């Protein structure tokens, strides 16, 4: 039997997306948490609440992204108490950037911060490995993102409605799931606007079927189209 090297680097794939639309933002992610070829969690939630109006999409090391989110949530809570009003999206994103940059030699995580505030409306900030911060109309991250750049160049447009933006995010995550072996599971979306936050959940049988994909079935026999077992 082959020996397993538990100290070898693991592939930790994901697909995370943030999109602005005319009135707010839509965040989306798959739900597969992998450790190399082993799926540790097939229904994880990679979109984490920082404040009532700001959320973060996490990719890379689950432990690293979770601890950054926990620190930022704590600091933003203190900030809100001191100022007596909710933190802006820009403040939240810059706190994420500060932690990511100051610990860039120890962290393996890329993050997308999205939210809405009364000053600048819906905003998306990408904070990739290394702690750079970039405000963008849309941001994609994780291993599945490499399959989506051309799709977003063609599909994204200014002034989308909420329904168009969520459909774009759902379609993009399902495309990445179809091509990227480290992305999978279900699709979760979070819509943030002046009216609050809406979470949506799309199981695999509600996602589009792409080229060469098999439709979902109840059993392996259904997929193979095998006849009933014969009596011998």
Main β-sheet, in a few words?
A: 5 strands, antiparallel
Rg (CA only) = 19 Å
Counting DSSP E segments of at least 2 residues, the number of strands comes to 12
Topology pattern, helix = H, strand = E:
EEEEEEHHEEEEHHEEH
Please, what is the average pLDDT?
A: 88
Helical/strand content category? alpha+beta
How many helix segments? 5
Shape: globular
Strand order of the largest sheet: 10-1-2-11-12
Q: What is the CA–CA distance across the termini?
A: 36 Å
Low-confidence stretches: none
> Strand-residue fraction?
25-35%
- Helix content range: 25-40%
Architecture blueprint of SSEs:
Blueprint (H helix, E strand, L loop, with lengths): L15 E6 L2 E6 L3 E3 L2 E4 L5 E3 L4 E7 L1 H22 L5 H14 L6 E9 L3 E7 L6 E3 L1 E4 L7 H7 L6 H18 L7 E7 L2 E7 L17 H5 L8
Antiparallel strand pairs: 1-2, 1-10, 2-11, 3-4, 5-6, 6-7, 7-8, 8-9, 11-12
Helix pairs in contact: 1-2
Could you characterize what this model shows?
This protein is 28% helix and 28% strand. It is built from five helices and twelve strands. The strands form three sheets. Strands 10-1-2-11-12 form a five-stranded antiparallel β-sheet, covered by helices on one side. The two termini are 36 Å apart.
Short description:
The chain is an alpha+beta fold and 232 residues long. It has helices at residues 62-83, 89-102, 149-155, 162-179, 220-224; strands at 16-21, 24-29, 33-35, 38-41, 47-49, 54-60, 109-117, 121-127, 134-136, 138-141, 187-193, 196-202. The strands form 3 sheets. The protein has a 5-stranded antiparallel sheet, covered by helices on one side. A 5-stranded antiparallel sheet has the order 5-6-7-8-9, covered by helices on one side.
């Amino acid at each position: 039997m082959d020996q397993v090297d538990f100290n070898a680097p693991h592939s930790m794939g994901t697909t995370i997306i943030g999109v602005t639309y005319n009135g707010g933002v839509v965040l989306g992610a798959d739900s597969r948490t992998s450790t190399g070829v082993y799926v540790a969690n097939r229904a994880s939630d990679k979109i984490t609440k920082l404040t009532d109006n700001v959320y973060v999409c996490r990719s890379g090391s689950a432990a690293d992204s979770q601890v950054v989110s926990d620190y930022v949530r704590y600091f933003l809570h203190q900030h809100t108490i001191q100022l007596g009003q909710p933190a802006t999206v820009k403040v939240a994103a810059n706190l994420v950037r500060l932690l990511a940059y100051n610990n860039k030699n120890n962290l393996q995580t890329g993050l997308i911060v999205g939210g809405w505030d009364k000053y600048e409306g819906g905003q998306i900030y990408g904070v990739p490995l290394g702690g750079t911060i970039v405000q963008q109309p849309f941001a994609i991250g994780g291993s599945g993102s490499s399959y989506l750049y051309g799709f977003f160049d063609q599909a994204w447009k200014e002034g989308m409605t909420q329904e168009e933006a969520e459909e774009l995010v759902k379609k993009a995550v399902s495309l990445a799931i179809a091509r990227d072996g480290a992305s999978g599971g279900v699709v979760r979306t979070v819509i943030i606007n002046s009216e609050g936050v809406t979470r949506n959940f799309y199981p695999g049988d509600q996602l589009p079927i792409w080229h060469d994909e098999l439709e979902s079935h109840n059993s392996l026999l259904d997929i193979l189209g095998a006849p009933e077992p014969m009596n011998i």
